[in-house]
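agent> Task received from the user: take the single chain below, predict its 3D structure, and emit structure tokens. No templates, no multimer pairing.
agent> Plan: (1) validate residues, (2) run structure prediction, (3) serialize to tokens, (4) report one or two observations.
agent> Step 1 OK, no nonstandard residues flagged.
tool_call: predict_structure(input=
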Amino acid sequence: MKNWKITSVVLPAILLVVVNIYLTLREDSEVQRTVYVEKWKKAEQGNITESFNAKAVIKPSEEHYVYFNEEDKDFDQFLVQEGDAVSAGTPLFEYSSPRLEAEKRELEAEKKAAEGEITSIEEQIDKLESYQLSVEADQPIADTADFMDTALAENSVEEIISSIEQDIYRQEYERSRLEQKVQKYEAQIQSIEEQTGAATISSEVDGIVKQIDKDLGNPVIVIASNTPAVEGYFNERQREKASEGMEIKVSSNSLKKKLNGSIQKINPYPLEDPSVEKESSYLFSGVIEEAPDRLFSGSKVDVTVIVDKAVGVPVIPSKSVHKNQKQEYVYQLTSAGLLAKRSITTGLSFHGEHEVKKGIKPGNTVLLSDAPGSVKKAPFITPVKSLDPNLKTMKTITNREKLRYVLIGVLEK
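)
tool_result: status=success, residues=413
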């Protein structure tokens, strides 16, 4: 009888415990279970920047090549030396043209010959004019007795004077023709002198004379630009992430602050022949927006490549984000004291942080670990995180919260 009574009490108790355990653990159970929450964090509004670092060196942004065409030209001398600073318009070297000099000498000879002919013609004209004056002065005075002889003499003198005048006209015409010829020679000589006077090649850019080939092998002069740039190498993983136009940050111990820039070019072919046993490296170059004056070529710098970034977005720790076959989710600690499963849409993820595009707002609290798989919404308990009652802490509490805490204290009394 006594055993029967014990059995009648124990069996229902065991059955009750088993049923409760079953209802609690069943996947679709509506029985609420209290979840112990040890680590949690509030979502913050912040920035996420995905980046990687590479080594680089400062180099001129470009090189300007100066050539010398030896055809019909003789090189005279260089006017600059390696290391000289030049600006646009600075003379670099001089040359002369034998062909132009020969043409000039030929034209000067022809001009001199024409001027000699003009001098001879002017002397001939002077003689003809003197002869004309003498003929006119020796003309006899006619009288009635010798009228016939006088008429014949006058006709003879007029013919002589007319012939002289025709000779003078022809000589003046020839002189005019030769003078035009001399003017043409002078114009041609002046044109050649202007060309030979400009027989210098000047720089088209500002920069530093990097190299001079005194053997006159082209390019005879290489000018490095004053504008600095960066040049370095990407490994295979970095090459996959990087692309031309991406933002970069340039830093070094000699720089007071980071310099902004962008990737200008990435060589698509490896620096060395591809090998199975060796990782490939890819040359890249980047431009710097505003470089300080004391940024020397050859300086070693660190380059941070900004692959992607999200600015002013809700940010949560990556370990608070969970994923099933359908979607991503987090466990949110609500103000009602419940641990709720929330579906979210994430964006950029980098260095242990996730951007949240949808589902969580700044200020929401999320669980930093996974909850039991069957929990969708359940009460939670968490250790009290005591705050030191200092002035800084008090300033973070709103007036409404202060009043609430005061009332709780009074009512608890």
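agent> Step 4: summary for the user.
Residues 69 and 370 are 77 Å apart (CA to CA).
agent> Done.
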